[in-house]
Specification:
Length: 57
């Protein structure tokens, strides 16, 4: 039914698919919330600095 080369190709495909799936899960659970949280914190710092600059000007 399958040759050995086809079997290896199928296993390579499954391996790459699985790696891509777990990479997507990692990015969605750790990296993207970290990036969003960091950008919100930086924006809040900028807003505070603008308020201080207006007070002292």
């Amino acid at each position: 039914m399958f040759d050995f080369d086809q079997y290896l190709g199928f296993l390579a495909f499954l391996g790459i698919l699985t790696l891509g799936f777990w990479l997507m899960i990692f990015l969605l659970t750790f990296v993207i919330p970290y990036w969003i949280g960091g950008s919100i914190i930086e924006r809040l710092k900028e807003i505070r600095e603008e308020k201080k600059a207006k007070r002292h000007a």
